[in-house]
Amino acid sequence: MGFKVKRSVEVQGEGVLDEFYVRIDKYTLYKNRSCLTILTGHFTSPEGAQSASGEYFEVDEADYDYQLSCSMSIDDTQINYNPRLQVDLYNTVLDCEPYMSSSVVKEEVDYIDFDENGEEIVKQRTVYSVIETESTTLLQKNLNAFTGSVYTFAYDKLKEKYKQDFDPCIIEDVL
Fold first, then answer.
1. Where are the domains of the chain?
2. CA 27/CA 105 separation, integer angstroms
3. Cβ contacts of 134 within 8 Å, gap of 6 or more
4. Neighbours of 141 (CB within 10 A)
5. Per residue in 33-62, pLDDT tens?
6. How far apart are CA 95 and CA 13, in angstroms?
7. What is the SS3 string spanning the chain?
8. Are 11 and 19 within 8 A, CB to CB?
9. Please, what is the average pLDDT of the chain?
10. Would you place residue 160 in the very low, low, confident or very high pLDDT band (cuts 50, 70, 90)?
11. How many Cβ atoms from other residues are within 10 Å of residue 27's Cβ?
12. Does 98 sit behind a cis peptide bond, omega within 30 degrees of 0 on the bond before it?
């Protein structure tokens, strides 16, 4: 199962393609972080994706000749497409009881030092500061954000992302 992205792209090492095939290589549901991560593979065709997997462990040797690089250009704009998508599974709860949270901010600050001749020079150093903020918004874990198959949910989210990132394009399911 996967889908074709019908959009002209130039892929490093392959040239210009009118379409390419996308499939999920791996997905992981993290209960403690309440998110789903999806790793994708790009291929020239569904058959190319199948040859990269092989059918049997002992007999077939994986053939990665049809796998595409994530370095591509769209309308003469170079991108390095991230094959990893993270889908957060939480709800935002507003108007909670106020609470304080802290974060660390890294800053480069100037300071005056002296060189070996006694001359003043300006140098920089890294300073870490703790900033406290008050909030009334909480993120509530929601592992029930989807019903049915995790696999179908993952593909739907993936298709949404590709539709947005490669717009205008046509997404065609391949079963």
1. 2-94+142-174, 101-135
2. 33
3. 98, 99, 100
4. 15
5. 889 999 999 999 998 888 887 777 666 677
6. 52
7. CEEEEEEEEEECCCEEEEEEEEEEEEEEEECCCCEEEEEEEEECCHHHHHHHHCCCCCCCCCCHHHECCCEEEECCEEEECCCEEEEECEEEECCCCCEEEEEEEEEEEEEEEECCCCCEEEEEEEEEEEEEEEECCEEEECCCCCCCCHHHHHHHHHHHHHHHHCCCCEEEEEC
8. no
9. 88
10. very high
11. 19
12. no
Cα–Cα distance for residue pair 128/105, rounded to 1 Å: 6
Amino acid at 149: S
| Residue matched to tokens 């660390």 | 104
Residue type for 156, please? Answer: D
